[in-house]
Specification:
30 strands, TIM Barrel, alpha/beta, Elongation Factor Tu (Ef-tu), domain 3
Length: 617
C-alpha cells in the first residue's frame, strides 16, 4: 500500500487579479497581504477582495493564506484582533504571522503558520512552534537539503514550507535591521528599503579599496525547479514562490512552470500528490528565464556555492541571447540562434561593469535596429533579454484554464429521469426531473453526450456520460433545450455541494507553557509588545530585550548572512586555498559615506554586518 504525501504549490498574490491567475495556473494555495500588518506594506488588500479570492479558490479546494507577519506595537494589537476576526469571516485558511503576541489575543479558531520572519532554522525551534499550536512552519531560505531532512525527521508531524523561487534576502529573514538602522524603515514592520541591493565599496583595515561601487550584498534569485523531488524526499510539503510585489505575468509564468514540473514528478512518484483539485491547461510554454530574475541560484540547498551573488547589478538580466557581432549606425548584428522580437528589451554589462539597456525597434533575422545610437554595445558584448515582447503579449491574454473533471449519470425514474454529476473528489449532485417519456425514433446517445458536455465557462469539464450500469438512457427522446437546462441546474447544485463540502481546517488554540529553546532573548527576538513579552515569559524565557525597532543598539549587528564576502573573493581559510593580500577587518562603505564592519564567524560559517558610528551617520 502506497502512503500518499500531499504536496502544496504556494503562489504569491499582490492583489485579487494575481490571486485568481495563480489559481488558474495551477497553485494549490495562495498567500496574500492583509489590509495592514503584512511584511510587504505596499501589498495590502481589502477584506472584500480577499473574500472574493477565497470564494474562487475554495471551489478548486485551493487554500488562501493571509500574511500578518510584522511585529506589532501595543497600540496595534486591538486593531489586529479585529482584523483577524474580519479575515476569519471570509473563511481564509490560515494566517502567516511573526509576532507571538498574536497568540495571546482573543482570536477565532483560525490556523496560524509560523512566518520565515521567525528565523526557523533548527529542529528545536520547529518543534517548539508546532507544540505551541502552529499548523505549518516556513523554514529559513538558507537551509540545505540535509538540514531540512533533519528537521523533518525530528518533527515528522509538522508540515514544512520552503521557498523554491524568487528574490533572496541576504540576511536571515527577521534578523535584518539595516533598513531600520539607516533609514528608519523596519523590514520587520513591512517597510524594507532594500539596503542589500545598494552599491558599496569594500575597504580594508588600511583604507585600501578592494572593490569599487559593487552590489556586494545583492544575491541572485532562487530557482529550485530541478531540485523539487529532492526537497519532497527531504520532507518539505509546501513549495513557496516568492513575489508578493510581482506583476500578474510573473505569477502566471512561474506558477505554471512549477505546476508542470510537480505534476511530472507525481506521474512517476505515486506516493506524492497535489493538495487541490482540477487540472490547468496553458496557451503558452512556461519559461522561467523570461520572468524577472537576477540570474538563478540553488542558494545553499546543496551546500555553499560560489555563484550566489550578482555584484554588477541588482536588476533583472534575463536570458542570455548571444554576442554582438557587428555595429553599424543604429543596427546591431548578433551571433546566436535565439529569435528576437520587435519591442524586446535588451541589456548588457559595459566596460565599467555597469548595466546598460535598450529597446529593440525592429528585427530582421539577427539584425536589431534601435531608435537611437545611445547605449550601443561594442562588438563581442554578451546581450541579455530582460523583456520578451512576444512572450509578454501571450501572458497579457487569457493564458490558462483550470477545470475539474466530472462524470454524468442519466437514469430513468418512474416519473421521468434523474441526472447526476460526480466530480473528481467524489462530490455528487443529483436532481430528478418529471418528464413524459417519448420513445425516440433514432439513437440519442450522441446528442445527450453533446449537450451534457457543453460546460462552457463553468469550472468543470466532462469526463464520462453513463448510467450506473455503465450505459445510458438512449430509448427516449429528450429535447436538447431540456438537457441543457437540466445540465445547468445540476452544475449549479454541484458547485454548491463543493462549497459546502470544502474541508475548512479549524484550529483549537490553547495556551501552552513548554520551554522555549533559549532562556534569554536579545533584540533578535523582535519583541515589540507586552503580549509577546508575556508569551516568552510563560515559556520560560527569563531575560528579554526590546526589539531593535523599539530601542536601537549602537554598534549593532544589522545583518546575519550565510553569504560570505570572504568566500566570494576566494579567501575562506576553511574551504579555499586563496589568501587575501588585504588586512582585516574589512568595511563596506555606502555611497553616502556610511560604514559597516564585516565580522566573519567561521564556527557558524556566517558573515555579520555591523553598523558603526551610528550616532554620526
Amino acid at each position: 500500500m502506497i502512503i500518499e504525501h500531499k504536496i502544496e504549490l504556494l503562489s504569491p498574490a499582490k492583489n485579487l487579479e494575481c490571486g485568481i491567475a495563480a489559481i488558474d495556473h495551477g497553485a494549490d494555495a495562495v498567500y496574500i497581504g492583509a489590509p495592514k500588518f503584512g511584511a510587504r506594506a505596499s501589498a495590502g488588500n481589502s477584506i472584500e477582495d480577499i473574500a472574493q479570492l477565497v470564494d474562487y479558490a475554495h471551489l478548486f479546494n485551493a487554500r488562501i493564506y493571509v500574511t500578518l507577519n510584522t511585529i506589532l506595537t501595543d497600540n496595534e494589537l486591538t486593531e489586529t484582533e479585529q482584523l483577524i476576526w474580519e479575515l476569519y469571516r471570509t473563511h481564509v485558511d490560515a494566517l502567516i504571522v511573526q509576532d507571538m503576541g498574536i497568540t495571546r489575543l482573543n482570536f477565532p479558531p483560525i490556523p496560524l503558520h509560523a512566518s520565515t520572519q521567525m528565523d526557523n532554522r533548527t529542529p528545536e525551534k520547529v518543534r517548539f512552534l508546532a507544540d505551541a499550536g502552529f499548523k505549518q512552519v516556513v523554514l529559513a531560505r538558507e537551509l540545505s537539503l540535509d538540514e531540512i531532512k533533519n528537521i523533518h525527521e525530528a518533527c515528522p508531524d509538522v508540515p514544512l514550507e520552503v521557498f523554491v523561487h524568487g528574490a533572496l534576502c541576504v540576511s536571515f529573514s527577521g534578523q535584518c535591521y539595516a533598513s531600520q538602522a539607516c533609514f528608519g524603515r523596519s523590514a520587520n514592520r513591512g517597510e524594507c528599503a532594500q539596503f542589500c541591493r545598494l552599491p558599496f565599496n569594500l575597504i580594508d583595515a588600511d583604507g585600501k579599496e578592494i572593490m569599487h561601487e559593487k552590489h556586494l550584498l545583492s544575491l541572485k534569485d532562487m530557482n529550485q525547479l530541478d531540485l523539487l523531488e529532492q526537497l519532497m524526499d527531504a520532507g518539505a510539503t509546501s513549495f513557496k514562490i516568492e513575489g508578493r510585489l510581482k506583476d500578474v505575468d510573473y505569477v502566471k509564468n512561474v506558477t505554471a512552470a512549477y505546476r508542470q514540473k510537480l505534476d511530472a514528478i507525481f506521474q512517476r512518484r505515486k506516493e506524492y500528490r497535489k493538495t487541490s483539485s482540477g487540472t490547468s491547461t496553458y496557451s503558452f510554454k512556461p519559461d522561467l528565464s523570461k520572468s524577472f530574475n537576477r540570474g538563478f541560484t540553488h542558494y545553499f540547498l546543496e551546500g555553499r556555492q560560489p555563484d550566489i551573488v550578482q555584484f554588477n547589478t541588482p536588476k533583472a538580466m534575463g536570458e542570455e541571447m548571444g554576442r554582438v557581432k557587428e555595429v553599424k549606425g543604429n543596427c546591431i548584428t548578433v551571433a546566436g540562434v535565439k529569435a528576437f522580437h520587435n519591442g524586446d528589451g535588451l541589456c548588457y554589462i559595459d566596460n565599467e561593469s555597469k548595466l546598460q539597456g535598450f529597446r529593440v525597434n525592429k528585427v530582421e533575422q539577427n539584425k536589431l535596429f534601435l531608435l537611437s545610437k545611445e547605449c550601443m554595445p561594442r562588438p563581442g558584448t554578451m546581450l541579455f533579454r530582460n523583456f520578451d515582447a512576444e512572450f509578454s503579449e501571450m501572458l497579457n491574454k487569457r493564458s490558462a484554464e483550470r477545470k475539474i473533471s466530472i462524470s454524468w449519470r442519466l437514469n430513468e425514474t418512474p416519473n421521468g429521469f434523474s441526472l447526476t454529476a460526480i466530480d473528481e473528489d467524489n462530490n455528487k449532485a443529483t436532481l430528478s426531473f418529471s418528464y413524459e417519456k417519448q420513445l425516440a425514433q433514432k439513437p440519442q446517445l450522441e446528442n445527450i453526450i453533446k449537450q451534457l458536455s457543453k460546460l462552457g465557462n463553468t469550472p468543470f469539464t466532462n469526463n464520462q456520460v453513463a448510467d450506473e450500469q455503465g450505459s445510458i438512457v438512449v430509448n427516449y427522446f429528450i429535447p436538447s433545450s431540456l438537457l441543457s437546462e437540466w445540465r445547468r441546474q445540476v452544475i449549479d447544485e454541484l458547485t454548491k455541494v463543493r462549497r459546502d463540502n470544502y474541508p475548512q481546517e479549524v484550529a483549537d488554540w490553547k495556551q501552552t507553557n513548554h520551554p522555549y529553546p533559549q532562556d534569554s532573548l536579545s533584540y533578535l527576538g523582535n519583541v515589540m509588545n507586552q503580549q509577546a513579552r508575556a508569551f516568552y515569559t510563560d515559556h520560560g524565557v527569563t531575560k528579554i530585550e526590546d526589539a531593535f525597532e523599539k530601542k536601537p543598539v549602537d554598534e549593532a549587528v544589522v545583518m546575519f548572512c550565510k553569504h560570505c564576502l570572504r568566500y566570494s573573493m576566494g579567501w575562506c581559510p576553511n574551504k579555499q586555498q586563496g589568501k587575501s593580500p588585504y588586512h582585516e577587518p574589512y568595511n563596506l562603505q555606502s555611497l553616502n559615506g556610511r560604514r559597516f564592519r564585516l565580522v566573519f564567524d567561521c564556527k557558524k560559517c556566517e558573515m555579520k554586518v555591523v553598523k558603526i558610528d551610528m550616532k554620526h551617520n
